[in-house]
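Retro notes - structure team

What went well: the batch runner handled both jobs without manual restarts.
What didn't: labels got mixed up in the shared folder, which is why I'm recording both outputs here explicitly, each with its sequence directly above its tokens.

Job 1
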Amino acid sequence: MAELPEEVRIFLLESQENIDKVEQNLLALEKSPGSADLINGVFRAVHTIKGNSGFLAFPHLETLCHKGESILDKARNGKIKLVPEIISLLLELVDAVRTILGDIEASGKESARTYPQLIQKMLAYV
């Protein structure tokens, strides 16, 4: 494990907590797909990870979160419904975010993983 700057360690801790919340809320949304509170909670957590990723120059993570955030924003505004297919896609995003966070924790930087297929699938809903 790399020796990480304090701000990166804090980012990783907060991001892990946020991505755990995202996963829990997405699973709850499968039972209550129209819950504004759950959708807003997922949006806020993804938005926070995206913003902090940009600040710390983790562009792959920022891009992934931005696409997920765009889908969630449409759901918040009633433009799309979080049907099981979209929830599954957002759970794929959770897995990708966790992988990238693991890479950052191990080496102090993002790996070359960019998840083009996941981004392409998310673009269909943006």
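Job 2
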Amino acid sequence: MMKSLALLSILFLITACNSSKEVPETAIPFVNTLFSENAFQVQPTIEESEIFLLPQQEQRKFLAHFNKQVEQGIRPDKVVFNYLEQRLDNFTYDGATLTAQESLTRNEGNCISLAILTQAYANLAQIETTFREVGTIPVFRKDNNTILISNHFRTKLLAPKRVTGANEFEILRAGTVVDYFPAQDSFFIDAAHYHDLVAKYYANKSVDALLDEQFDESYSLLTKALIYTPYDPELINLAAVLHRRSDKKAHALQIFEYAKNHGLTSQNLLVNYLSLAKTQTNPVLVAHLEASLDSNASTPFDKIQVAQRSVKKGKYNKAIRELKEVILEVPYIPEPYFELARIYYVKGELDMTARFLTLAVEKSSDPEKRALFQAKQDALSSNR
């Protein structure tokens, strides 16, 4: 999974919600030019080729299986999918971002790890791939005063191109989708490509290093990620967060300002920028960022955060309207129902609270979320 962070009271750190992957039409300087020259020491990092490298024995085993299956008439993309499905039968899904070889050796990893492993086999089979970045509104995990959230990748193994006439073309390429984290309460974020996957690996490792306060390592991995997606708002956000955590507040402000001036912002970046701006004497900037957060909300997660900010301001009816709009857009995710239950509980309307807690439980496909919502529902019932 692609990690996002929120440093409580100050930061929402990287990823993917509402980030633009398009290269700006007009050339702009890279964000690296704003980094502090003396704050970090560059550390050695893993090379791209090593991320996707499989052991020689595994390569031979896979290729023997692949060639035999293809000779029997099975489509190449389906051969890779079936091999992965069998190979990962006892796989443990956790939060670690691993190389292809580490995933096989440890028999575990997150969805970015699995996308990397899938790509490693696709490389051997010479199969083209595309990706989709998918978000889920998370159960928050606290880690040293930091909230971790995540998005994940779905890989599509493309089928061989059909032989067509000179005036024919394929509108939609056939293929097989690999998604070992299917969830009902998910939503599409953006199309993605190979370079995005590589960048996500380095970004996740950079976040891990930042949480461990290994700032030199985090910096080194971040600069590697920026080689692949230099204008990714979430990486720019991570750069600003890293500088702030390293007591380089002036550099962090310059990085945020760079993002705003060049239109390279995301909700996470704006939240962090706003937090830092509130420590300055610039009420105009604070007002601008607050307005930008509300007007630029695009994903369900963004819109739920808008409603949460309305709640903090005591604007309960406004928050209720905002959450009901989210339900109209994505009626299958549980979070807006849970947020409505929280509002009605504060308002003392316990019947409405119980109703929306029940809906939150019914809509949740994630066992951890369902357990959380069920516990709240049970607590409410026992106290009535």
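One thing worth noting from job 2: The chain has two domains: 2-274, 300-382.
We'll revisit the folder naming next retro.
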